[in-house]
Amino acid sequence: MLKITNLHVAVDDKPILKGLNLEVAAGELHAIMGPNGSGKSTLGYALAGRDGYEITSGAVDFEGRDLADMEPEERAAAGLFLAFQYPVEIPGVNNAYFLRAALNAQRAARGEPEVDSMAFLKAVRESLKALKMDESLLKRAVNEGFSGGEKKRNEIVQMAVLKPKLAILDETDSGLDIDALKLVAEGINRLRDPARSFVVITHYQRLLEYLEPDRVHVLSDGQIVESGGRELAERLESEGYAFLESDAVEV
Amino acid sequence: MSVLAENLLSDAVLADSYGAVRKRAQAELMRHGFPDIKTEAWKYTSLRALEKRSLVPGEHQPASPPPVPFDHHLLHIDAGRLLSDSSSLPSGISIEPVDSNRLAGLDYGNRGGAFGWLNLARFEQGLKVVINGRLDQPLMLALTTPDGHADACHPRIEIELTAGSRACLVQLDSSNGSGLVNAVIDLKVGENARLDHALSRHNGDAIWIERLDVALAAGADYRLVTLDGGGRLTRQDINVALNASGARCEVDGSVLIGARQHVDFHTAIDHCVGGTNSRERFRMLADGNGVGVFNGRIHIHPGADDSHSDLNTGNLLLSEQARINTKPELEIHAEEVTASHGATVGQLDEQALFYLRSRGLSAEAAANLLKTGFAAAPLETAVDDAVRQWLLANLGDWL
Ligand SMILES: Nc1ncnc2c1ncn2[C@@H]1O[C@H](COP(=O)(O)OP(=O)(O)OP(=O)(O)O)[C@@H](O)[C@H]1O
Ligand SMILES: [Mg+2]
Q1: Which of A22, B99, B215, B242 is least surrounded by Cβ atoms within 10 Å, i.e. has the fewest?
Q2: What is the pLDDT of residues B310-354, one digit of tens each?
């Protein structure tokens, strides 16, 4: 699904990712943890194709295609989805309208017909309901005036509607109350599928208790410095990142 | 004599019952002259494009009124003259000639008001429309010019709502010619009357200068929503006088300016007495080498205590060459008032563009969505559903 080899990314000429390697197979869920400022969001942005996140060397292969050559919207149509750490408010743009336009744009790029309006609305309503979001949010502007938790849940609604092949979730669990965290985890689990993969960036192993990750990685100073199973997340939770410095393992 | 005076005035005063009015207006205009860029209110708007036009009269087929997707009563004015059949109007709408005594008392001031004087000197047919009661459908006022029009015309329309009346006025300004339209619209909203006014304009090469003077009586309520789709040179003045206690107005607008276009909006809201309220919100978008000018003046007169106003302008520059000059002007001479204002000038938000693209929208579709969202906000305030939909559809077509 995704194969990142020796990825270097610079922002404003400042190297942030410094030789990152990561391979995620179809159907897998990988967690990425790591200290603030280590480059986790940078990885998400670079994969999604944000301007200014320049791949200076290395390669990113997504289902046999080189991501570096693709525009953000092409990556989306190819099945890549990034749930933003800080979802963006879009004043004046109606949420339902936006979501349908996005879905139809992706479908058009893939040569598929437009979605049926009724079926679309039904699917969105179901996703909203599953995340205990009020339907009135559909009529509001995208993320505008949404509470922090509503914004995060709205990312999961979008993911559920767009049905990506690979979803990168950047701290979608941060700022959620305990019930909302569960809803988000359920939202992710509902989409688990042998043909769909997840990269879940998080600071807390609580989310991982619900998600059962296949691998847990630690990103530090632009590199994956440690990988393991769920027990790695538990160890990080109890000991912090300090132990990495003492017995860091080369990957 | 200046180029403009030479092109636009004539020694022969039009011979009709308004002779004295016209003579006085022409004399005032000659005395003050036309504005130039040293005239404060015209500082950012040069009339060179008008000077360079050779205005030529010609025989043209009148334009047909532009279609709108809702039922309405029609007043169609083509090159300053009423074309539509006024006998089909309902009993609540009556039409008469403008009163020359009233015209004799008008004062458009000095240079800054030159086009008001010019209109008074040259208007083709002064129409006064009286609305009495509650209109069942919007009254559409279509100001057009004949196809291929390359002359000057000076439409003059007065609309008066009697006390307690209520109406929705939909004004549509359009010309595909290359001449000058110099319109004056005078609105009088009587005691406790309410006027919802939508103004939609989209021009190509024509030069459009329009002055909208609104006078509100006690308890009168005036709501203007305007969408300007741009034009080679457009100047819109909006003057609202809150003349008596309880009067309120809301003025909202979106202005779209494309390459080689110049659109200047000057608004002035006068709180003449206390207990009056105003709210104003404008959005301007300039693309290519387009130029936008917005000047929003709020004047709270001495003694107009307990008045409240709020003015907000947002501006979006869509290219490196586009320019927008925006200026709120607050003049407050009273006590216990609130007057807030805010102005922003920015570009399309890079973060928002990326967010939309990451969901699959093309760069162009994402930019369009942001522009539409930005410009739609002032139009959303239009009260009548069908009128609002029509404005939003126009916005979609013109962006
Ligand atoms: N536009 C920029 N200019 C300069 N430095 C930047 C820019 N964007 C990000 N950085 C830097 O890149 C580094 C990595 O940032 P990133 O957001 O990827 O961290 P993170 O691992 O997601 O952190 P957090 O856990 O706090 O979300 C930080 O030091 C940050 O300051
Ligand atoms: Mg981050």
Answers
A1: B99
A2: 999 999 999 999 999 999 999 999 989 999 998 899 999 999 999
Stated pTM of the model? 0.90
What is the reported pLDDT for B42?
96
Q: A38 C-alpha to center of ligand 2: Å? A: 8
Q: Among the bound ligands, name the one nearest to the CA of residue A53.
A: 1
What CATH number does the domain located at A2-250 have? 3.40.50.300
Residues near ligand 1 (Cβ within 6 A): A 11-12, 14, 16, 34, 36-42, 85
**Beta carbons of B285 and B257 less than 8 angstroms apart:** yes
- The kind and range of the H/E element at A106 are helix A95-109
Question: Are the Cβ atoms of B354 and A72 closer than 8 angstroms?
Answer: yes
**Through-space distance between the first and last CA atoms of chain B, rounded to whole angstroms:** 41
**What pairing do the DSSP bridges indicate for beta strands B81-82 and B73-78?**
antiparallel
- B37 touching chain A per CB within 8 A: no
Give the C-alpha separation, B322 to B328, whole Å. Answer: 20
Taking residue A56's Cβ as centre, other Cβ atoms within 10 Å add up to: 12
Instruction: List phi, psi (to 5°) of B165.
Output: -75, 165
Judged against a pLDDT cut of 50, whether residue A237 lies above it is answered with yes
Q: Which of B254, B344, B348, B354 to mutate to test the interface with A (most CBs of A within 10 A)?
A: B354
Q: Enter the ipTM.
A: 0.95
The H helix count followed by the E strand count for chain B is 8, 20
Spell out the per-residue pLDDT of chain B, length 399, in tens.
588 888 888 777 677 899 999 999 999 999 999 999 899 999 999 999 999 998 888 888 888 888 999 999 999 999 999 999 888 899 999 999 999 999 999 999 999 999 999 999 999 999 999 999 999 999 999 999 999 999 999 999 999 999 999 999 999 999 999 999 999 999 999 999 999 999 999 998 999 999 999 999 999 999 999 999 999 999 999 999 999 999 999 999 999 999 999 999 999 999 999 999 999 999 999 999 999 999 999 999 999 999 999 999 999 999 999 999 999 999 999 989 999 998 899 999 999 999 999 999 999 999 999 999 999 999 999 999 999 999 999 999 999
Q: Which amino acid is at B329?
A: E
Q: Which of B271, B272, B292 is nearest to B282 (CA)?
A: B292
* CA B322 to chain CA centroid, nearest Å: 22
User: Minimal Cα distance from A99: which residue of B?
Assistant: B359
Could you give the C-alpha distances from B156 to B9, B71, B151, B225, B388, in angstroms and in order? 17, 25, 16, 21, 26
Q: How far apart are CA B247 and CA B294, in angstroms?
A: 24
Q: Report whether B184 contacts B116 (CB < 8 A).
A: yes
Give the number of A-B residue pairs with CB atoms closer than 8 Å: 81
Alpha carbons A143 and A130: distance in angstroms, whole number: 18
Tell if the CB–CB gap between A105 and B361 is shorter than 8 Å: yes
Closest CA to B28 of B51, B5, B55: B5
Of A34, A28, A29, A12, the C-alpha closest to A20 is: A34
